[in-house]
Design brief:
Blueprint lengths: L2 E7 L15 E6 L2 E5 L7 H7 L7 E5 L5 H4 L2 H8 L2 E5 L6 E8 L2 E6 L6 H7 L1 E5 L4 E4 L2 E3 L16 E5 L2 E4 L8 E5 L2 E6 L6 H12 L3 E7 L8 H13 L1 E7 L5 H11 L3 E3 L5 E3 L1
Bound molecules: fe (ii) ion (2 copies).
One fe (ii) ion binds next to loops.
Length: about 280
C-alpha cells in the first residue's frame, strides 16, 4: 500500500501556509481512498485543509484517537463539508472529562471532553461505529482499540479526570487508540496523544499484527508531562526497535522533542502543520 500522510492540525506551523492550534489531525491518502485521523480542536482544520490542498469532502472514513476536545472539536466542520460519514471510535468517546491545571498560580478546572453531543453530530451526518477492539477497518488499515497498560513507567496524566454520575475519578483514557497502516516498507503508527503510553501501544501493535518492522511512528506522544523516567525508558525501548523514522507532534513537549532529536538524529522529524510523510 502506498501512503501519503499530511499533518493538518498541530501546535506548530512549519511551512508558509496554515495555522497552529492546540490539537492534532492527519490527512491520509492511500490508493484505496483518503481518510482522516482526528480533527483538531476545530479552529484550523478547514482553513488548513484548503491551504494544504487536502479536500475534506473526499474522505472515506474518520478515525478518532480519543475523546479530548483537541482531537474531536473539528468534527462538526468536517461532517458539514463531507456529509454522511463513518466515524470509528471507542465507546467512551463521549465521557465528561476535566483537566485540573495550574495556571497563573491558581488551580483551574477545564472541561476537556468532546464539546458536542452525539445526537448533534449524528444529525450533521456522523455515523459512529463503536469498538474497543483491535480490528482491520479497511485493507491494511487497523485501529489498535484499547491498549493494555503493562509498563511500570508509563503512568496516567495525574491532571486528567472523568466525571460520571456526580463522581470524579482519574481519567486513564481507556479510549485512547492509534491507527496502523501496513505498508511494504513496514508499519506506520499514528498516535493521537498516546495516553496509553507509547511503549504499551507499540508492544500491543507488535502482538496484534505479529510484525516488528516499523517504517514510521508519528503523532502526539505526551512524553514531557509525566516523569523523566518515562521519557528515558521510552527512548531505551525505541533504540531496540526497528523504526526508520520517528516523528512527533502536538502534546510531545519541547524537552522530549529535543531529547528525541538528540538521540535519533536524522531518523527524527517534527510533524508540523503541513509536514508530509510519503512512502
Ligand atoms: Fe491532545
Ligand atoms: Fe489527549
Amino acid at each position: 500500500m502506498k501512503v501519503k500522510i499530511t499533518v493538518l492540525c498541530e501546535n506548530l506551523v512549519g511551512r508558509l501556509v496554515g495555522s497552529g492550534e492546540h490539537g492534532f489531525s492527519a490527512f491520509i491518502e492511500t490508493e484505496g481512498g483518503n481518510y482522516l485521523f482526528d480533527t483538531g480542536s476545530g479552529h484550523s482544520i478547514v482553513a488548513n485543509s484548503l491551504a494544504l490542498n487536502k479536500d475534506l469532502r473526499t474522505i472515506r472514513k474518520i478515525f478518532l484517537s480519543h475523546g479530548h476536545h483537541d482531537h474531536t472539536g473539528g468534527l462538526p466542520e468536517v461532517v458539514k463539508l463531507k456529509g454522511e460519514v463513518d466515524v470509528h471510535v471507542h465507546p467512551n468517546l463521549f465521557s465528561d472529562r476535566i483537566a485540573v491545571l495550574k495556571e497563573d498560580d491558581k488551580e483551574t478546572k477545564r472541561f476537556v471532553g468532546i464539546p458536542y453531543k452525539k445526537a448533534y453530530l449524528e444529525f450533521l451526518g456522523a455515523n459512529f461505529i463503536f469498538s474497543k477492539d483491535f480490528y482491520e477497518v479497511e485493507r491494511d488499515i487497523f485501529l489498535t482499540g484499547e491498549v493494555p497498560r503493562k509498563t511500570p513507567f508509563e503512568k496516567p496524566d495525574p491532571r486528567l479526570f472523568i466525571e460520571r454520575e456526580g463522581k470524579t475519578t482519574q481519567d486513564i483514557l481507556l479510549d485512547d487508540q492509534s491507527l496502523i497502516l501496513n505498508t511494504k516498507e513496514g508499519l506506520v503508527v499514528i498516535f493521537g496523544c498516546a495516553h496509553s503510553g507509547m511503549v504499551n501501544i507499540l508492544n500491543h501493535v507488535i502482538q496484534k499484527t505479529r510484525k516488528e518492522k516499523f517504517y514510521a511512528i508519528m503523532g502526539g506522544t505526551h512524553l514531557d508531562f509525566l516523569t523523566p523516567e518515562q521519557l528515558e525508558e521510552s527512548i531505551k525501548f525505541l533504540r531496540k526497535m526497528e523504526i526508520k523514522k520517528i516523528g512527533v507532534s502536538h502534546c510531545t513537549g519541547m524537552r522530549a522533542v529535543f531529547r528525541l532529536h538528540q538521540e535519533f538524529g536524522d531518523r527524527f522529524f517534527y510533524g508540523y502543520v503541513g509536514s508530509v510523510l510519503e512512502l
